[in-house]
Description:
By secondary structure, this protein is an alpha/beta fold. It has a single domain (about 5-185), classed as Spore Coat Polysaccharide Biosynthesis Protein SpsA, Chain A, CATH 3.90.550.10. Helices cover about 30% and strands about 25% of the residues. The protein has 7 helices and 10 strands. The strands form 2 sheets. Strands 1, 4, 5, 6, 7, 8, 9 and 10 form an 8-stranded mixed sheet that branches. A hairpin with a 2-residue loop joins strand 7 and strand 8. Helix 3 (about 75-85) packs across helix 5 (about 140-150). GO terms for molecular function: GTP binding; metal ion binding; molybdenum cofactor guanylyltransferase activity.
Amino acid sequence: MKTIGIVLAGGQSKRFGEPKALALRHGKPFLFYSIEALRPIVDEIVIVAQPHIRTKLSFQDVSWIEDDPQYKGKGPLAGIYSAIVHHEATWYVVLPCDIPFIHETIIRMLKEQADDAFDAIVPYVNGRLQPLIAIYHYRVKSLIYNCLQQEEYRMHTFLSSCRVKRVGMKEEQPFMNINTKEQFYKWIS
C-alpha cells in the first residue's frame, strides 16, 4: 500500500502578500513543517509549487511538480490532481504549506484510519471538516477530474461526491493555517 504525501505550495498568497511557503517560524520555512510531518509516514513526498518557490528552497528526497498546464491556477483540486496523475499510489496524504503547527502525530492518526471502504479520510475539528489536511484514495482521481472539467474548484463540492470518513480530533492548533500577516504576527512572531 504505497502512500504519497502531497504538499500544496502553489497558491498565490494574495491575502498574505508573499509566498506563504517561504514564511518563517523559528527560522524555518512553513513548507518545512508540512514536509517533516509527512516524512516518517509516507513513501514519497511531492510538492506542488510554482517554480519560484523551488528555486528558493532545497529539500532532500522530495519531488517538485507544477499544476498540469490546463488546470494551472485552479486551486487545491488542480494541485492534488496533478500530483496523482504524475505519482501513482494507493493513498495520498494532502497538506497545505501554511500550517506551521502540523506534526507527525496528526498524520499518523489519519493514516491509521485509512479504510478502502472510503475515498477520503478527513479530520473533523471544532465543527469543521479539514479537506486540505486529509488522506485520499487513488479512486478520487476521476472524481477530481470531473470537478475540474465542470470548472467546480471547491473542496467541499468535491467531498460531496466522495465516501468520507470523518475523524474527530480535539487538538486545534495543528490545523491552524496562516492566511494573513495579522495571523502571522499574532501566532508566529
